[in-house]
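# nightly structure sweep
# worker-07 picked up a monomer target from the shared queue
# config: single-sequence mode, recycle default, output format = structure tokens
# input follows
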Amino acid sequence: MNRIKEYMLFSLVAAMVGCSPKVTSEMQMWDFEPQPTNKVMIFGANDDVPAEAKAIGRVFVDGKGASVRKQYGKMLNLAVKETARKGGNVLVIDTVDVKNNCVKSTVAYVDGMLADSLTLSDRRVRQLLKMKTIRRKPSVQQMNAAQQQAIISGQEEQRQQEMEMLAQASINQDNYVEDDSWESETSKAVIKDKSKEEYTLKVAVGPMWTISKMCFPDGSDRYGLRGYGMSLSYAMIKGQNWGFGFDAQYYRKNVTTPDNMLTLYKNWDYSVSYAGPCVVARTSISDSFRFFASLGVGLSYYRDIEGTELGYAFRESFGLEYTASKHVDVGVDLVFLESRYQAAGMTELPNGDKIGINNLGLMATLRYNL
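# output follows
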């Protein structure tokens, strides 16, 4: 029995290893310093590769019979690690062979600033999945010997400077001072990646209803009045799932008094404005859809023909968004705003009513990822 268990366990492990993607590389240039993986930029079939990027090798990832679509992120991760290990900081996806379950790529190197939006992330994987499977744009030119030697010399000089800084820090270790000037660019990049923040700006517009009872100056009580609303939201997403932001919202409704009512007010309007901070949360439902939710509290300002009121309000929103492009998401939001205002000194409200307005809106949204 024990032998059977051992055989089954061995077969299971062998099957798992056999099905794992395998990465291989072929280099035309050598002697480059290894790079941190969070400094590798990924360019897909639809992307324009900077002219400064020069090819130094090739990377091939074999999916081992498993579908590329189901393990594309894992295969890209292997290609990025191999690119960084060989000293490259640019990975150009040339071919995604769905039939043979493999990915063929070019390893390149470029001097310059890192494009954070092009490094490996869940969002970047989804963008690459939507691109063509074969790159039709001009291939990356190969690096020549002079360019290679210049890069190697620059890396060697940088390494010497880091060693001198480390040596100096060791000499002064008895006089400890909080100074991170000796830290390498690699360690700084890793720290930056862990605390990466994403900034977004969202515009929403759509119908909005007043779902609380409204006691109007014309003497009527009404429910469910539909007007229009718009909002502007700014959010800072920390890590992957949550963050903080600020919401500004405006609602306006035109009111017409029936002809059979004796009143000076025939055609007029009222509006509710809101502004305040919020907490934001999000989660991915699939490769293309994400769910957003926010909760905030802030100031509410009411205006009609008889005057204005300033109070406070709670705002909740729940939205579903579709990733349309690298920077743009579109979707729909369900928004609820509960406003409360200070009642006059001798005011008595029947049936436990409160001085306030509740609004419910269904809005189309457009989010821009900065």
